[in-house]
UniProtKB/TrEMBL annotation:
<keyword id="KW-0560">Oxidoreductase</keyword>
<dbReference type="GO" id="GO:0016651">
    <property type="term" value="F:oxidoreductase activity, acting on NAD(P)H"/>
</dbReference>
<protein>
    <submittedName>
        <fullName>Pyridine nucleotide-disulfide oxidoreductase</fullName>
    </submittedName>
</protein>
<dbReference type="InterPro" id="IPR016156">
    <property type="entry name" value="FAD/NAD-linked_Rdtase_dimer_sf"/>
</dbReference>
<dbReference type="Pfam" id="PF14759">
    <property type="entry name" value="Reductase_C"/>
</dbReference>
<dbReference type="InterPro" id="IPR036291">
    <property type="entry name" value="NAD(P)-bd_dom_sf"/>
</dbReference>
<dbReference type="InterPro" id="IPR036188">
    <property type="entry name" value="FAD/NAD-bd_sf"/>
</dbReference>
<dbReference type="InterPro" id="IPR050446">
    <property type="entry name" value="FAD-oxidoreductase/Apoptosis"/>
</dbReference>
<keyword id="KW-0285">Flavoprotein</keyword>
<dbReference type="InterPro" id="IPR028202">
    <property type="entry name" value="Reductase_C"/>
</dbReference>
<feature type="domain" description="FAD/NAD(P)-binding">
    <location>
        <begin position="3"/>
        <end position="301"/>
    </location>
</feature>
<feature type="domain" description="Reductase C-terminal">
    <location>
        <begin position="320"/>
        <end position="404"/>
    </location>
</feature>
<dbReference type="GO" id="GO:0005737">
    <property type="term" value="C:cytoplasm"/>
</dbReference>
<dbReference type="InterPro" id="IPR023753">
    <property type="entry name" value="FAD/NAD-binding_dom"/>
</dbReference>
<keyword id="KW-0274">FAD</keyword>
<dbReference type="Pfam" id="PF07992">
    <property type="entry name" value="Pyr_redox_2"/>
</dbReference>
Amino acid sequence: MRSVAIVGANLAGGRAAEALRQAGFEGRITLIGEEPWRPYERPPLSKEFLWNTSDVLDKFFLQDEGWYADNRIDLLLNTRAEALDFNAGGVRLSGGQLVAADKVLLATGGHARKLNLAGADCANVHYLRTRDDAARMALDLRQGARVVIVGMGVIGAEVAASAIKLGCEVTAIEPMAAPMERALGKRFGQWLGEEHGKRGVKTYFNRGVTGLKFADGRVSAVEIDDGTLIACDAVIVGVGIIPATSLAVDAGLTVNNGIVVDRRCQTSNPVVFAAGDVAEQDGFFGGRFRQETYQNAADQAQAAALAMLGQEVDYCKPMWYWSDQFNLNIQFCGQIPVQAEVVVRGDTESNAFVAFFLSSGTIDGVLTVNRPADMGIGKRLVERRVSASADRLADADVSLRELLKQTT
């Protein structure tokens, strides 16, 4: 293999380029990105970037500018990949130029899902996906601003916390019964909702948005499905992403809820691989799904790079993510079974605890709040499918490391 083209100059694309060089690949690497910025991390966009834009600028890029030149990686920024041209052997750019490549990695990520309502494209309606999105949003998160959050998944909950930190008046609207309920389950979603309420977030759960009141290009109020009108200065929408699969679809690759890949991160075309938010992969507990997490984007990109080099790869990991909100560090690994037995170690009242989610005695999921060291072991308990009794898991005198040793 003489050349690799990576479509997506983001976390996954950047980590793949790094992994190729670290593995000794000496051929040409071209990294193609639509944004004007070299690869950066997205987690700060909903937190530190909003708090102090100027302070975070130099901290969230994956590598300094000179690294790409030093490692002979061609950065094509502000550039759109238009098509995969299998006849010519490479990626066709929007201007018609061909980037020759023996293998291609699609790390195209996704686009923020928009509200299907009149006024949803007004200047003070914000969707958070890119650095430029965050910069525009930050201008509206000023002291005393009335901010409405639509959707209380990870992004919505984090921005709500950031807006409170910045002195905004925050109202959140969520169609489910609690924030992050899909990720945390009903019990701990409710706990998180109470924590937001204690800190000043006014919440409307089990409610949907039915309309926006707007004039002169700005939304002045949000209407919810019980007829309530919520006055606002800005609206933040966090209702998920749409995977960017158009290149794959046009190229005839197999696409479902994302670009379908095997455990080598290979698509239905043997010269094309995919990684990150756009890839539909085998689930650790069965089935297939997309993992929209930082760690998956980084790890799967590295796996894809090694697979492109012909190394043995079998990528299939449980989901792991974290979220920082207020003074809460929330981490989760695994899944929450439908009929999970829930065991808590620690004190939920003090916001320092671990929760285990069991299925027939096997640890399927671990949640930690303000106990990050426990997640280091918790991830391995999930990965190794460790079984443990509820009494031992709840007993703080029983070391989690001892439970882990039972499997070695």
